[in-house]
Automatic annotation (TrEMBL):
One of its GO terms (cellular component) is plasma membrane. The lineage of its organism: Eukaryota, Viridiplantae, Streptophyta, Embryophyta, Tracheophyta. This is CASP-like protein. Residues 6-102 form the Casparian strip membrane protein domain. Homodimer and heterodimers.
Length: 137
């Protein structure tokens, strides 16, 4: 199970890095921003932030068990024998959560760009969405 957790963290990080590179290249192209493009960036930023957050959370569990063990299943901590691995794993987790924070900031920027440039949906009032305006025929 431990191997799967680290494999997931590595794969998720690689996919998110690829998305970040592709996103930066697409953003650098001089094309006008459209609503569909803004929504795509907003949704993908959200998805990849949560993918990295889940990968970091699962890996945090593994590192915690490596340090502390689990007395209920008589699993002792392994960091006494694998100290170098535990230090590298902890550093990897710190970097992962720093990247999650960067993705959170990126998500805030993309949501600001989306919601500041485009109007609210049809039928929106200060009290919410007017459903009679939505279902008019």
């Amino acid at each position: 199970m431990t191997r799967f957790n680290w494999w997931y963290l590595v794969q998720a990080s690689g996919v998110c890095a690829g998305y970040s590179l592709l996103s930066a290249l697409v953003s650098a192209l001089p094309r006008p921003s459209t609503m569909s493009r803004a929504w795509t960036f907003f949704l993908l930023d959200q998805v990849f932030m949560y993918v990295l957050l889940v990968a970091g959370a699962v890996s945090t569990e593994v590192v915690y068990l490596a340090y502390k063990g689990d007395a209920a299943i008589t699993w002792s901590g392994a960091c006494k024998q694998l100290g170098k691995f535990c230090h590298k794993a902890t550093a990897s987790l710190a970097i992962t959560f720093a990247v999650v924070i960067c993705y959170a900031v990126l998500s805030l920027v993309s949501s600001y760009r989306l919601f500041s440039r485009y109007d609210a949906p049809i039928g929106y009032t200060n009290k919410g969405i007017d459903m009679s305006a939505v279902f008019r025929t």
